[in-house]
Amino acid sequence: MLPSPIIAHFFKDMADGNYKGFPSLGIEYQTTLDEQFQEYLGLGKDKQGVYVTQRRQGGSAESAGVKLGDIILEDERPQG
């Protein structure tokens, strides 16, 4: 079962005959929660993020310059 907002989005996007779908970063990733993996990547134990294992050609990540093997870290800036 799909929520009605998703169905509504689909029909609205299809109206002009050019379905673009939902935005996607276009990556597959591995979390960096494992201490041994953090050490292998040269991260400190307090660093959390994701390790990019795949990148879809033509996706948003490629446009932003994300490469295989990049590590995307959490935002450490204060909120507010």
Summarize the structure.
The protein has 3 helices and 3 strands. By secondary structure, the chain is α+β, with helices and mostly antiparallel strands.
Describe this structure in words.
With 80 residues, this protein is an alpha+beta fold. It has 3 helices and 3 strands, in the order αβαβαβ. The protein has helices spanning 4-14, 35-41, 60-64, and strands at 27-31, 49-55, 71-73. The longest helix has 11 residues, at 4-14. The mean pLDDT is 85.
Radius of gyration: 17 Å
The residue fraction in helices comes out at: 25-40%
The main sheet orders its strands as 1-2-3
DSSP strand content: 15-25%
Q: Tell me the series of helices and strands, N- to C-terminal.
A: HEHEHE
Count of DSSP-assigned helices: 3
Biggest β-sheet strands, sense, barrel? 3 strands, antiparallel
Average pLDDT rating: 85
Quick tags:
80 residues; 29% helix; 3 strands; alpha+beta
Secondary structure elements and their pairing?
Blueprint: H1 4-14, E1 27-31, H2 35-41, E2 49-55, H3 60-64, E3 71-73
Antiparallel strand pairs: 1-2, 2-3
